[in-house]
Amino acid sequence: QKRKTGIDYISHPAKVADCINSMETATQELVAAAWLHDTLEDTKITKEEIIEKTSEKVYDLVYELTSDKEQIKILGKAEYLTQKMNNMSLGALLIKLADRYDNVSDLDLVSDSFAKRYIEETEYIVNNLNYMNILKKQPYYTSNIRYTIESFIDDIETKLKERKKKMINRDNLVLVRVNEGGVVYCLASNEQIQDIESFQSYK
User: Fold this and answer.
1) What is the DSSP string of 50-85?
2) Residues of 64-84 as b/e, b for ≥16 C-beta within 10 angstroms?
3) Are 90 and 134 in contact (CB under 8 A)?
């Protein structure tokens, strides 16, 4: 199975799981749920199979991370995910942020039109995410957990800014010259793209 980026799908849960595993607060259940976070939504794996192979706690996390397609149709994906994330358990929220971070990290590999929609959706979620309410519901939480959440958000916003800079209308690219080094394009900002491979990344 491939992602929209053309990369093998298994690389995505692997990176999300690695991200969760790197946290001081990581548990076996969180890492397992990170590996399986899309399974109920995108595969034929059942509740019983997840519980049999892992545990009911892992299943509960995976279920919490599974989107309701009918509700997405009613609310719109950005609003649906915002409401969902604002009502998640702390563990599910951490996995969801790791998931979103990995997704925005690959936006260079998709079209500008898809990237634009995903960026707008992500910005809406981040701007309306009330993670402090989730933290207040915990029996206790350390400053490290808050720092982890805020670091995820900062890293996501950085990736979004980087990708937005590359969303340049091709109509603003003017052919300057062709030389031995390749095709040189000039932007309205006078920024130069030195070769055709660089130009491809601006599409």
Assistant:
1) HHHHS-HHHHHHHHHT---HHHHHHH-HHHHHHHHH
2) bbeeeeeeeeeeebbbbbbeb
3) yes
| Lookup result for tokens 């340049």 | 168
Tokens representing residue 105 in the block? 């990290």
> What backbone phi and psi angles, to 5 degrees, belong to 184?
-110, 125
1-26, pLDDT tens digit by residue?
A: 666 666 778 999 999 999 999 998 89
* Whole-number CA gyration radius for the chain: 20
pLDDT, one tens digit per residue, over 61-114 is 999 999 999 999 999 999 999 999 999 999 999 999 999 999 999 999 888 889
Q: How far apart are CA 21 and CA 121, in angstroms?
A: 27
- In whole angstroms, give the CA distance from residue 50 to residue 64: 14
Q: In terms of pTM, does the model score above 0.85? A: no
Nearest to 104 by CA among 9, 1, 201, 12: 12
166 contacts: CB under 8 Å, gap ≥ 6: 108, 112, 201, 202
The alpha helices in the chain, defined as continuous H runs, are: 11-21, 28-36, 39-42, 47-53, 56-64, 69-75, 77-86, 90-105, 112-127, 131-136, 143-165, 196-201
Active site positions, annotated? 41-42
Dihedral (CA of 124, 157, 119, 192) sign: positive
